[in-house]
């Protein structure tokens, strides 16, 4: 963790401006992306922590968030591409979870995020919790948009919490699980070198904790899961499936989408570890067997 104290990670925010039905005062927290994978898990956890009072669900298509509205959550229309929708969406909000947009077209995501930041300042939002990515401070490759967004938030004068998420474990483990079932072998071009990923659910729960806990102001968290290797993944899949699963090295070209990341893995760029994810979760991050079990249970 960089910045902030981190000493009260996981402590639920108690009373602050914003009336609830009980007459107490709770922080008004808004979340974007509530119909997406990460946002949906985060809002569910937030409801479990504090109930619907003070929770605002922001959705590009509010109809898709109807189940949340039925549970007493205030649903508001917010479209990154329609900045005028953001003024009403952010009215009265104190803490905002800004889930990074999925559009990777050059310039689009940065413009979307900057629009949200500008309207958040106008609306009087106090803190933005942003789902960034590891490597954002380098400003290169796929993390470049995140680096620009972090700088825009920091320059806005708002308090911030940057969640630099690892790559999702499900993408790697899910692809390997499919291989194991189809051909009984897992392949990669990683050279057996370790990499860290994190389960999507863990990252979403960490976001919820950062929204509701104390000590997260102007903090940067690098959310890494446990290190693992592809040979270890093959062994874990064999144990879970109850049959042999082999492992075979292939070329980057043969490795498909993983081949684009493999040079970084072989160079050790994804082999760093850190305690931030476990601290936010208040428990160990999900390991390979746990991720496999979750995928098999779907």
From TrEMBL:
Domain NAD(P)-binding: 33-166
Lineage: superkingdom: Bacteria
PANTHER family hit by this protein: NMRA-LIKE DOMAIN-CONTAINING PROTEIN (PTHR47129:SF1), QUINONE OXIDOREDUCTASE 2 (PTHR47129)
Record-given protein name: NmrA family transcriptional regulator
Organism whose genome encodes this protein: Sphaerisporangium album
